[in-house]
Design goal:
- This protein is of the alpha/beta class.
- The chain has one domain: Ribosomal Protein L13p, Chain: A (Alpha-Beta Complex), CATH 3.90.1180.10.
- It has five helices and five strands.
- The chain has a three-stranded parallel β-sheet.
- Strand 1, helix 1 and strand 2 form a beta-alpha-beta unit.
- The longest helix is centred in the first third of the chain and has 13 residues.
- The radius of gyration is 15 Å and the shape is globular.
Length: 139
C-alpha cells in the first residue's frame, strides 16, 4: 500500500500507518516532507529542539540521537507507536518504508490519501520540511 502524506497531520497519519503494519500490510509513505505538525512555529520548534539538543552532561556523545531528516522523523513517530517488545517491533518495522518525495517506482501507481487527516487551514502548522530545515537537517 502506498500512502501519500502531503498535507496530512503527521501524528494521525503515523497512528493509522502503525495499525496497518501491525495488521501485516506493507506500507510505503511518500511525500513525508510535506506532512504537517499542527501548532505555532514557536511551540513546535521548542518541542523538536529540546529533543535534538538533548545530551548527557558527562559525555555529550552518549544519549538519544534524533534525526533531522523528515522521513526519519516520520519513521520514528511510527516506530514509537508500535508494541514495546523488541522482537515484535523489529519484525513489524520491516514492513514500513518512508520517503521524502515520490520515488520513480511509485510515480505511476495510485497512492492512498486519508482525507480525514487533512489539516484545516485555520490552524497554525509547520511542514516536516520546515521543521527539518530549522533543526539544520540536510538531505
Amino acid at each position: 500500500m502506498i500512502v501519500d502524506a502531503k498535507g496530512l497531520i503527521a501524528g494521525r497519519l503515523a497512528s493509522k500507518v502503525a495499525k496497518l503494519i501491525i495488521n501485516g500490510e506493507n506500507v510505503n509513505v511518500i511525500n513525508a516532507e510535506d506532512a504537517i505538525v499542527v501548532g505555532t512555529k514557536a511551540a513546535v520548534m521548542v518541542k523538536y529542539q529540546r529533543r535534538v539538543l538533548a545530551a548527557v552532561k558527562s559525555n555529550p556523545h552518549y544519549g538519544p540521537k534524533y534525526s533531522r531528516i523528515p522521513d526519519r522523523i516520520m519513521r520514528r513517530m511510527i516506530r514509537n507507536m508500535l508494541p514495546t517488545t523488541k522482537r515484535a517491533k523489529e519484525r513489524i518495522i520491516e514492513r514500513l518504508m518512508v520517503h521524502n518525495k515520490t520515488p520513480k517506482e511509485f510515480a505511476k501507481e495510485k497512492a492512498v490519501v486519508f482525507e480525514e487527516f487533512r489539516c484545516n487551514e485555520r490552524h497554525p502548522f509547520m511542514t516536516m520540511k520546515e521543521i527539518a530545515l530549522e533543526l539544520g537537517g540536510t538531505w
